[in-house]
């Protein structure tokens, strides 16, 4: 097998899940399994403790948080759980323009309400998250506004104009802080993922799309240049980037 070139972003690669005609069964299995992958690699528990919780507690009122491009909804659901555990009042929204992702998020939420959790926790958590099938422009037209806007693994899916539209619209929707989290492209990330994803991959697009994601992802200085001077891009953990900017709303 020839060695994959990771020195440059491969923006031409298309992920299987981005094909509107992809196998719906495998897509649903992929979206449902994102929660395992995200818990392992995305580092949102740490971002919550270090960045999000201080922002939310600093408001001294119930906060409104949007996860834009929320996919199967696991990141926003996990954050709702962490905030609920901390006694914080937050109105969580997960929005995704893809109806297939929206349906998967609603399905996972329905499943969550049936999980073997103490009833109080089940009701509290699921009531805090609403899922919308919408992109940023639709939310702006509806007059939505949020204290914090986040995303996970969306930036690398977008082409250059799409990245600028998405990042700008996310700031327009936000009165506080925008945090977009994504993979940092590296040879080691690629090699570790190729091995580590093996037990989770059967029946899903996780292997092919995860490796393509890494090839499409940015290095810190590339993302910084692509987003422009208003954004600060940092690496909060190995193989991760966070782009942060103040809201414009
Ligand atoms: C790899 S999935 C990530 C899903 C989820 N955030 C996660 O981490 O599991 C990328 C998601 O971004 C969504 N997406 C793509 N372009 C978007 C856009 N312009 N605005 C909002 N969401 C978008 C897709 O529909 C897809 O659900």
How is this structure best described in words?
The protein has a single domain (24-246), classed as Vaccinia Virus protein VP39 (Rossmann fold, 3-Layer(aba) Sandwich), CATH 3.40.50. The chain is built from ten helices and seven strands. It has helices spanning 24-41, 44-57, 74-85, 99-114, 119-128, 136-141, 160-172, 187-196, 206-216, 220-227, and strands at residues 63-68, 90-95, 129-132, 146-152, 174-183, 232-234, 240-246. A seven-stranded mixed β-sheet has the order 3-2-1-4-5-7-6, sandwiched between helices. Strand 4 (146-152), helix 7 (160-172) and strand 5 form a beta-alpha-beta unit. Helix 1 (24-41) packs across helix 4 (99-114), helix 2 packs across helix 3 and helix 3 (74-85) packs across helix 5. The protein is globular and about 55 Å long. The model has no long low-confidence stretch (mean pLDDT 94). S-adenosylmethionine binds at residues 34, 38, 68-72, 74-75, 96-98, 101, 135-136, 152-154, 157, 162, 166.
Short précis:
With 249 residues, the protein is an alpha/beta fold. It has helices at residues 24-41, 44-57, 74-85, 99-114, 119-128, 136-141, 160-172, 187-196, 206-216, 220-227, and strands at residues 63-68, 90-95, 129-132, 146-152, 174-183, 232-234, 240-246. The chain has one domain: Vaccinia Virus protein VP39 (Rossmann fold), CATH 3.40.50.150.
């Amino acid at each position: 097998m020839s060695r994959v070139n990771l020195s440059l972003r491969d923006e031409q690669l298309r992920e299987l899940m981005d094909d509107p005609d992809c196998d719906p069964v495998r897509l649903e299995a992929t979206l449902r399994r994102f929660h395992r992958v995200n818990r392992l690699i995305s580092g949102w528990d740490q971002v919550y403790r270090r960045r999000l919780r201080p922002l939310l507690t600093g408001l001294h009122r119930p906060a409104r948080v949007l996860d834009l491009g929320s996919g199967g909804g696991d990141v926003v659901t996990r954050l709702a759980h962490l905030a609920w555990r901390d006694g914080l009042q937050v109105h969580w929204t997960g929005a995704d323009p893809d109806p297939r992702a929206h349906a998967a998020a609603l399905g996972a939420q329905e499943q969550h309400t049936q999980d073997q959790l103490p009833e109080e926790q089940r009701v509290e958590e699921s009531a805090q998250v609403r899922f919308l099938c919408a992109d940023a422009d639709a939310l702006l037209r509806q007059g939505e506004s949020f204290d914090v806007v986040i995303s996970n693994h969306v930036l690398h899916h977008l082409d250059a104009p799409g990245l600028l539209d998405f990042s700008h619209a996310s700031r327009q929707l936000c009165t506080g802080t925008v945090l977009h989290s994504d993979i940092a492209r590296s040879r080691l990330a690629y090699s570790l993922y190729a091995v580590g994803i093996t037990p989770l991959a059967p029946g899903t697009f996780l292997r092919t799309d995860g490796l393509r994601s890494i090839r499409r992802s940015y290095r810190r200085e590339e993302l910084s240049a692509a987003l422009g001077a208003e954004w600060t891009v940092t690496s909060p953990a190995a193989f991760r980037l966070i782009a942060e900017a103040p809201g414009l709303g």
